[in-house]
Amino acid sequence: MLPIQLPEHVRSLFEGQFPVPVVDIATALDIKMYTTDDLSPSQSGVIVKEQEDYTIVVNETHSPERIRFTVAHEIGHFLMHKDILDEQRSFISDIKQPAFLHDAEGAMHRAHDHRLPSKDRTLELEANKFAADLLMPKEQFTKVWDVSNTIDEVAAFFNVSISAATVRGEQVLNSFMV
To answer: Residue 63's pLDDT is what?
Structure first.
């Protein structure tokens, strides 16, 4: 299955449900879920492999909408980058998307003062695109946008942040006015 088809396939497990139930999808994929306040404020979440188990840990201090996007993003890493995850043991997702640095244990961390290396930037862009496609499918986004009065209404329908809905609108509608 091509990466472009993955969000549609995963979403089909819960067809017609909006907002998309990302925690149920993680559960269906046998990924454990935890929340914690132990992550730094800039860290949204992490997906970790321990032995044969995969776990997504999200920062409970973030908004529910941010958490949903983070879960979808980490599911994207699980489905599209599992080979890298198996090798490195984790992906850590920050709010911002600066550079990755690999620590002594092989975990990926983002460093805010560096540009993402090309390969890592590609992985993050793919996971972000997966999350946006999963949570706000193009066809449904267009329909909701056509009947909504504000971007706030669109964001509320999909239960995502206004920022995520705005970025998605720019991607889907090409020219987008908030």
So the answer is: 95
Please say if the pLDDT value at position 168 is more than 80.
Answer: yes
Look up residue 28 and give its two tokens.
Answer: 């269906």
pTM, rounded to two decimals: 0.80
Tell me if the bond preceding 19 is cis, omega within 30° of 0: yes
Are residues 140 and 93 in contact, defined by beta-carbon separation less than 8 angstroms? no
**Model pLDDT, residue 42:** 83
Which has the closest alpha carbon to 75: 126, 138, 136? 126
Asked if pLDDT for residue 107 goes beyond 60, the answer is no
Q: Is the dihedral of CA 153, 157, 159, 165 positive or negative?
A: negative
The alpha carbon torsion through 43, 47, 51, 52 (nearest 10 deg) reads 170
For 61-97, letters b (16+ CB in 10 Å) and e give ebeebbbbbbbbbbbbbbbbbeeebeebbbbbbbeeb
Q: How confident is the model at residue 49 (pLDDT cuts 50, 70, 90)?
A: confident
d(CA 161, CA 154): 9
- Distance CA(45)–CA(74), nearest Å, equals 8
- The mean of the pLDDT values for the chain is 80
